[in-house]
Specification:
Blueprint: E1 7-10, H1 13-23, E2 35-40, E3 46-53, E4 65-73, H2 79-93, E5 98-104, H3 110-114, E6 118-123, E7 146-150
Parallel strand pairs: 4-5
Antiparallel strand pairs: 1-2, 2-3, 3-4, 5-7, 6-7
Amino acid sequence: MSGRRLHLVPVRSRDAKAFVATWHRHHPPPAGQVFAVGAADEEGTLRAVATVGRPVARHLDDGHTLEVTRTCTDGTHNANSMLYGAAWRAAKALGYRRLITYTQDGESGASLRGAGWQVIARRPPRPGWHTPSRPRTPRGTEHIARTLWQAP
């Protein structure tokens, strides 16, 4: 898939969720989003998507911050970096001051570095999100360290 010229395209929520369900390595589609953006090739075939929504961590949901909740590609080279840059430009255009995302331990973050993002924190593994007051179903991502990134 490398060598294809990509361009940005708007993506409807249902189409972004379907793409994530098909291509994402370890997460299901996000529950909601503020917007989605895609990368398509010259023929108009969607090759990658990014979904952006309110921060998952409640303490970061300050009304000025958004989170890239998913990015995924069909393997097309440089598509994720393109989407991270586009997501930040769109968030700023909507008046947001901060855009964050996470990578899991074992993911290089090359696409984020390529888009100019910076590591701002490393989060240790959690045993899960279930508490007696907020029951949660395990998602298979428990016990995995994460890195918090911020757009430039």
